[in-house]
Model the fold of this input.
Amino acid sequence: MTDCPNGLMRDQLPEYVHGVLSAADAARVAAHLEECGDCRDEVALLETVRADAEGRTPHINVAAIVSALPRPSAVTGRPASGRIRSTRAWQFAAAATLVLAVGSSVLWQRSPEGATQRVADSSQVLPTPASTAPVATAAEQVAPTEGMMFGGGLSDLSLNDLESLLGQMDSVRTLPSSQPESMTPVIAVKDGGKAL
Amino acid sequence: MDNPTRDDGAAADEALIARWQGGDQRAATELVGRHAQALARFAVSHGVRDEVEELVQDTFVRAFNSLQSFRADSSLRTWLFTILKRLVLDRQRAERRQRNKVELDEGHAIDEFDALDGMVADEALVRVRQATARLSPMQRDVFALRVNEGLPYAEIARVVESTEGACRVHYHNAMRAIKEYMTDD
Ligand SMILES: [Zn+2]
Done:
């Protein structure tokens, strides 16, 4: 199985197989396939891989998933949950100001049992669309600025947590994130079990 | 963009999100229906065999709980893939810890999975599976998103936290490796 020398054409083959090319591009690829055995072989390989992926994937029960989702009002009615998005500089500034304001009093505001809420509790860490922008090279991936959301108020944080938050603000563009903190999935148990 | 199909998909998602945020629960059904199978395929490409549906469900639960912070400068689909990928990697790490094993690379985990996955009648299919199992984790992700989902490099780059150019190279290296494996001996 050899490679067609037309790299531009080969690059479009997966999208051709999925039917997501524009009509003009699809026509160009189709015309090329008429005369290129290498690309026809590659298309056949792509279709085999794709069909295999579909064949080995269990059918997902959409209704079961939807039943586990929050109700719209339960989510959108919440006043932003006190979450701060790393991509919003003004919120950072506000958070930093608040941190300074409450920093000295935060210790006695902790709950009686001394439990504190971790900054960027991993169960709440979600990749934010705006934070996954590509960086310069594949070898030098800089982390997206994940993990800067946190639940609860700043007064729930320990002094160390607040210092950690400030540190994260300073280094928000340099955090290594290909290894995000462990996330503890909160998986609602569905009825009906797995669909296979 | 010269791709009306893809743009229509992202726009449809945005409209559905707006409907759901406006209180229309049926929009959630449409959103889940549009992406659930693709997420499941991506999980399977990572070697997930059990609890695929639970992983997909958890992905949606997390996404919907944070939809108020979703911004349309990335597609919903990209965001969902990113959440799922992190859940899968986290689960695999937890499983490795549980087994108290020395850190395996993810490629080996997939090898194990495919070696166990018998009952494939088609010899060519067996070869394809073996070949894809030998890809690096990055090549495997890029290849899966490109071949199984038809995603553009720009979207793949966001999911795997790399660049379009690097993803193009990963894709073609993966394709070459698979072809070489298929035609060996
Ligand atoms: Zn060709």
Q: What stands out?
A: The pocket of zinc ion is lined by residues A 4, 6, 9, 32, 36, 38-39 (CB under 6 Å). Residues 120-185 of chain B form a domain with the Arc Repressor Mutant, subunit A fold (CATH 1.10.10.10). Chain B touches chain A through 93 residues (CB under 8 Å). The two ends of chain B are 43 Å apart (CA to CA).
